[in-house]
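Side project, low priority. Logging it here so it doesn't get lost.
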Amino acid sequence: MRRAWAAAAAGALNGAWMLVDGSVALATGDYIGDELGPWAALLRAVGVDPLSRVVAAAFALYGAAYLALLAAYALRPARLRSALAAATAPLLAYLAVGTLVAAATLALLLAERRSAPPAQA
């Protein structure tokens, strides 16, 4: 159970940062930091401006939804472990600290899965 809480705490760093960063981008038109991560190149490749208000809003909403998922996971880790892993994987493209935090979150989820009893239906 400690690993579940550690995964939730680590993930909360990314979720909160995305919520704040997206909100700042909505308010100012630019994200916090010097440059955007690889996710911006992916958006540009499909013709989407990563600095658009729609992307900033999506970024903030993803952060808020991720925080909500983390809260639910902290209460029911066995049932939501896979959902949290799926929601965490895209955060690996959130350089550089976000990548490290996402990798740590995924590692903690894997360790927690290996040590936890199977989920009950």
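Brief comment: The chain has one domain: 2-114.
Revisit when time allows.
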